[in-house]
Automatic annotation (TrEMBL):
Source organism, top-level taxon: Bacteria
One Pfam family here: Peripla_BP_6
UniProt KW keywords: Signal
Species of origin: Rubrivivax albus
Protein's UniProt name: Branched-chain amino acid ABC transporter substrate-binding protein
């Protein structure tokens, strides 16, 4: 090739668009995590972030989300609401303004309700920038009943489903005669106490409620007065929906005053609660969930082991199957829709099914089209020392774990809905 030819080839090459010289990475599908990542429940928010980060990483490792124009990765973006409702609303506007089409939140039903309302208005006002709200933990039943929305999908069992599982265990515990109720003073905590009494009145009319308390959420530093009241009441057990530090501080106070009570909890199996309870929790602390590390089976063991390899610090051992299922079902719905458009994805996700046994779960989960509430099996477990029969894996390096005491099929926990969802 002559010198002139080489110069002409170089000039032609330099004039090519950059896209022809270097393949550009596919634009990611962005998910906004709006959560309290600092403040009194910052540990719970960071634990959620690890779960969702791992879920997106696993999908990206498989090549991402397959779309007609080519596969695209998922990208999780953090928005720290500090646990404040007003801050969460401001961050929602910011995420939507940046064109993010999928919003994730869960650690507060009050915040979730405000975000659903704001998103409904936004989607009606700006249909070209609609978004979906993916809820992994806000379990006030009203969110899929009176306040249901075509843009909201809940992947956690709501409070009545969880209560049904716990009440089913208490139904057979005839030695239990005196129960104390305590909860956080906001929509979810109020509902747990109100509905807990109603369910128990049907299942155990002989059971006496010896006391009940609602306390400010995230603001009580000393639970000793509450613990002293529980002990003085003669209660044999406590039913609570408390989560995060409000649960950890409560169980520490109960231990300090020497209250010998069983605990029926929504979240007593994580975020420091087992270590705080110690030996007093052996055989006494019950938790309800869609999965726990000792449910057994090769798939469950592999699922847990993979998470521990990704996050080897024992303190980070907070793994929830539903958060993985949420991201898996979202990715599958985007692929079925062939688009990231919120309306198309909403239609694809409504009624969708996912066999969570591939991740070690207990059976098929399905997103009920009537109210966008995920229907799934649940399991009740009880705290025991690590290494005891059925407790191969400990929680958060605490020396304690949980073993299964009761499994409930989807039909056993499914609840009716009053949702009258309007078409978008």
């Amino acid at each position: 090739m002559s010198l002139l030819s080489r110069r002409r080839l170089l000039a032609a090459t330099l004039s090519l668009p950059a896209l022809q010289l270097h393949a550009q990475p596919a634009e990611p599908i962005r998910l906004a995590l709006i959560e309290g990542l600092s403040g009194p429940f910052g540990n719970a928010g960071e634990a959620v972030f690890r779960n969702l980060l791992w879920a997106t990483e696993r999908i990206n490792a498989r090549g991402g989300v397959r779309l007609p124009g080519g596969a695209r990765p998922l990208a999780l973006e953090r928005f720290d609401s500090k646990g404040q409702l007003e801050e969460a609303q401001t961050l929602l506007k910011s995420a939507l303004g940046r064109g993010i089409g999928f919003v994730c939140q869960g650690n507060s039903s009050a915040v979730a309700a405000a975000l659903v309302e704001a998103l409904d208005k936004h989607n009606a006002r700006e249909p070209h920038r609609r978004a979906l709200f993916l809820n992994y933990s806000a379990v006030d039943p009203v969110l899929t009943n009176e306040r249901c929305s075509p843009w909201h999908f809940r992947f956690d069992a709501h409070a009545d489903m969880r209560l049904a599982a716990l009440v089913d265990v208490m139904r057979t515990d005839r030695a239990l005669q005196r129960l104390y109720l305590i909860g956080q003073d906001y929509s979810f905590g109020q509902h747990v106490l109100r509905q807990g009494k109603a369910m128990l009145a049907q299942a155990r009319p002989d059971l006496v409620i010896v006391g009940e308390d609602l306390h400010p959420i995230g603001r009580v530093k000393d639970f000793l007065p509450y613990a002293a009241k529980i002990k003085a009441s003669g209660a044999q057990a406590v039913l609570t929906g408390n989560w995060g530090n409000d649960l950890t501080l409560l169980v520490r106070a109960l231990r300090e005053v020497g209250a010998q009570v069983r605990l029926y909890t929504f979240y007593g199996n994580a975020l420091g609660a087992p270590a705080a309870i110690g030996d007093a929790g052996v055989g006494a602390v019950h938790a309800v969930a869609e999965w726990h590390p000792n449910v057994g089976g090769a798939a469950s063991d592999a699922f847990h082991a993979a998470f521990r390899r990704r996050f080897p610090d024992p303190k980070d051992d907070y793994l929830h199957l539903r958060m993985q299922v949420m991201v898996e079902m979202l990715a599958a719905a985007i692929e079925r829709a062939g688009s990231t458009d919120a309306l198309a994805v909403s239609r694809a996700l409504s009624g969708a099914r996912f066999d969570n046994r591939v991740l070690g779960g207990l059976g098929e989960a399905w997103m009920r089209a009537d109210d966008h509430q995920l229907q799934q099996p649940l399991v009740v477990s009880v705290m025991d020392r690590a290494g005891a029969p059925g407790v191969e894996k400990e929680v958060e390096g605490s020396g304690y774990g949980f073993r299964t005491v009761h499994r409930l099929a989807t039909a056993d926990v499914t609840q009716p809905t009053t949702c009258r969802m309007s078409a978008p």
